[in-house]
Specification:
4 strands, single chain, 3 helices, about 20% strand, two-stranded antiparallel ribbon, about 90 residues, about 25% helix, alpha+beta
Length: about 90
């Protein structure tokens, strides 16, 4: 199983991930993100850097099966009933 870490702007994470036509850019380091996206270098909490992890669909399905999570409860977009971030833990939308 291979998980690949990366960085993206929180606005992209919240609103674009899984929804943007053509995809969303994932940067290999926080420094690369800050260099290419000037909005993340400031103090704006909406544009702060977010660390994410990506993996193949097959590896993700295997991880879900091993964890005992009901796959029907997982949505294809991060703007769903439950999302998880490293900084804030499990977030549940009402």
């Amino acid at each position: 199983m291979r998980a690949v870490p990366g960085w993206m702007c929180k606005v992209d994470f919240d609103y674009e991930l899984g929804e943007a036509l053509g995809g969303t850019t994932l940067f290999s380091s926080k420094e690369d993100l800050n260099r290419c996206r000037k909005c993340t270098a400031g103090k704006d909490k909406d544009h702060r850097p977010v660390e994410v992890v990506t993996m193949s669909k097959e590896d993700f399905a295997r991880l879900v099966a091993l964890s005992g999570i009901d796959p029907r409860g997982i949505v294809t977009s991060n703007v769903g009933p439950a999302i998880w971030t490293k900084e804030e833990g499990l977030l549940k939308q009402v």
